[in-house]
Amino acid sequence: MDRLHARTGRSLLLAALASAPACGGPAPAADAEAALACADTGPHPTWDDDVQGIFRTYCNACHAADAPDRHGAPADVTFDTPQQALSWASRVRQRTLVDQTMPIGGGVPAEDRHLLAVWLDCPG
Question: Taking the CB of residue 97, how many other CB atoms lie within 10 A of it?
Fold first, then answer.
């Protein structure tokens, strides 16, 4: 697809998303833009196939509800479900992707950090 058609297609998709009814009213433009951004990105990691394993490998030794030794992790910061992980999305992003101070000791490969970043933006 050439650039003009791609731009036109994205514009039409954005317009359709912005005018689509959602739970009692039209979707806000910001939601439509976020949906478009997610549609244009790849890969499309999902909790079950990609991200849950990242949390299990690098986070849940301290951040699982049943972790035997949380090493000082706050009791309310758990990542057992996608909802729990997303409720801490901004903090996960800052500590894991920006500052890279979590997990303690580091070691998250760039590919896993990328999948996590995409999922935090576009949970699937």
Answer: 15
CB neighbour burial string for 60-96, b if at least 16 within 10 angstroms, e if fewer: bbbbbeeeeebeebeeeebbbebebbeebeeebeeeb
Task: Show Cβ contacts of residue 46 under 8 Å, excluding neighbours closer than 6 positions.
Answer: 119, 124
Q: What is the pLDDT along the chain (124 residues), one digit of tens a residue?
A: 333 333 333 333 333 333 333 333 344 455 556 566 677 656 789 999 999 999 999 999 999 999 999 999 999 999 999 999 999 999 999 999 999 999 999 999 999 999 999 999 999 7
Measured distance CA(118)–CA(100) in Å, rounded: 16
